[in-house]
Automatic annotation (TrEMBL):
Belongs to the UPF0102 family. GO terms for molecular function: nucleic acid binding. This is Uncharacterized protein. It comes from the Bacteria.
Length: 95
């Protein structure tokens, strides 16, 4: 079974989450960054923004308990100016 989109551009008191998707085992928040290169896109996510996004995700899961799953993670999708994309799974684990 594939991932189901639960929300797009979800605003919270802590900031906006670009995308929330889920399957039976995982609920995943996704941040999308686009810059000239994939490297610049990946580097565009600051520690401060990462902490805000994690707080936003915690908030969403507290007010939408039906979205809860056994596993959670925060992925980063980076896009360059040519439209190439890369997904970095569990990108915020370090924060």
């Amino acid at each position: 079974m594939g991932l189901k989109v639960l929300a797009r551009r979800l605003r919270t008191p802590f900031g906006e989450i670009d995308l929330i998707v889920a399957d039976a085992e995982w609920v995943i928040a996704v941040e999308v960054k686009q810059r000239k290169t994939l490297k610049e896109s990946a580097e565009a996510l600051s520690q401060k923004q990462s902490q805000r996004l994690l707080a936003a995700f915690d908030y969403v899961l507290s007010v939408r308990p039906e979205w809860g799953r056994p596993n959670t993670r925060f992925d980063l999708v980076v896009v360059d100016q040519k439209g190439r994309t890369r997904r970095i799974q569990d990108a915020l684990r370090a924060f």
